[in-house]
Amino acid sequence: MHGAILDFVGQQYLTANMASLKTTGTIVVIGTLSGTDASIHLGQLLGRRLTVRGTALRSRPKYEKMRLIQTFQERTHAFFASGRLGAIIDRTFPLAQAAEAHRYLVTNQTIGKVILTVD
After folding, report:
1. b/e code 14-46 from CB counts within 10 Å (16+ = b)
2. Distances (CA, A) of 65 to 15, 60, 68
3. 3-state SS class at 44
4. How do residues 77-108 score in pLDDT, each as one tens digit?
5. Eight-class DSSP state of 88
6. Is residue 25 within 8 Å of residue 5, measured between CB atoms?
7. What stretches of 1-119 show up as alpha helix (H) in DSSP?
8. What is the pTM of this model?
9. How far apart are the first and last CA of the chain?
């Protein structure tokens, strides 16, 4: 595989996500925060041999969710431990500024996670 994108947003980001993939890349749609209807540029899909997959956890039984979590942990732990994979943190706010953190999230300008810290 030549790159993968885990897409939590769906509709709004699909076109840009497809454009950012290398040939034979994959998009896995795991959320639809911006909507469920989206258009796919079939020329990009076919010409660059891209793969678009969809999945959902909510409708799965608990035992299946646990199995997926365990498999993910087994396959990725070494990458997180070595620093090859990690979360992108946009900003950190103290818990006392939770309202300000929420206002920041609503602006939709974040690139990464917004974290509340407890002192």
Report:
1. beebbeebeeebebebeebeeeeebeeeeeeee
2. 29, 7, 5
3. helix
4. 999 999 998 888 999 999 999 999 999 999 98
5. P
6. yes
7. 14-20, 42-47, 62-82, 98-106
8. 0.63
9. 42
